Amino acid sequence: MNATLYPLHTALSLAASGVPVLPLRRGKVPFGNCTACAGNACGGRPNMKTPGPCDCPGVCHAWAAATTWPGVIVSPPWQAAWRRAVCVGYHPGGAGLTVVDLDDADAITWARATLPATRTVPTTRGEHWIYRGATTSRNNVRPGVDIKSTMSYARYLGAGTGSMTDLPDTVRALVAKVPAPARQAPRTVTAAAPLGGGDCPHRSPVFLERGIAMAVQQITAARSAVHATVYRTFLAVLARHGRCGCLSEAHVTRLFTAAQSKGETARHCTDAWTNARTTLGL
Fold first, then answer.
1. Could you tell me if 237 and 215 are in contact, meaning their C-beta atoms sit under 8 angstroms apart?
2. Do 156 and 10 touch, CB atoms closer than 8 A?
3. Which of 68, 78, 180, 210 sits most deeply, having the most CB atoms within 10 A of its CB?
């Protein structure tokens, strides 16, 4: 079946085989978030256990929206997206796969000399080599080579040829991260200075303690929309205390512990914290 002419049919077929799918618009990119999810205001929920990345029924949060649920794929919000879609995207990591995206002839030559043969799919300028096994996604691991697996999406360009083989250690080594630098010692409440110089406005530890306690209470009291509540709370704490340096690792740990007591994972907490910092320009 032609994935370009019949994207919805192709998507349903892939989903039935356990491959999470999403529609891609012109430019071969995901549809943008809805108004309620713009700027990740909803907090997001990038996992594959729910019919979407958050409570929004639309095609939000790019790769995180990919799903195998037929009811979601044919729902009215998704139908509207499929009518505008130019092709089908899928989340390789969600299907336990890794795509080695070879963008030119030199990259293909390197792969043929370095990697074990596997299922191959022709692309506009090169080839996708598809392996069994998921790994971290990373672009530009070498000239003309991107790795697409977890937290990423790839275009579906057909079934390809050849037998799929296990992901080789060579590819895992390409995406291995450089060890993070040692974490700095926790900063004190009274000695830290705000960005731009000057005295810290939170000279009294009681002021900061009250703010953290209220934030913890707000998270633990959430009965719904926990992801959004965690994100908004992190955003509020950072907006008030993030620029002067008075937050310590102990404060952050208290906030993360409260979020995890409501079912959030450590990774989701880190993502929400990072997104809040980015939003505030910290």
1. yes
2. yes
3. 78
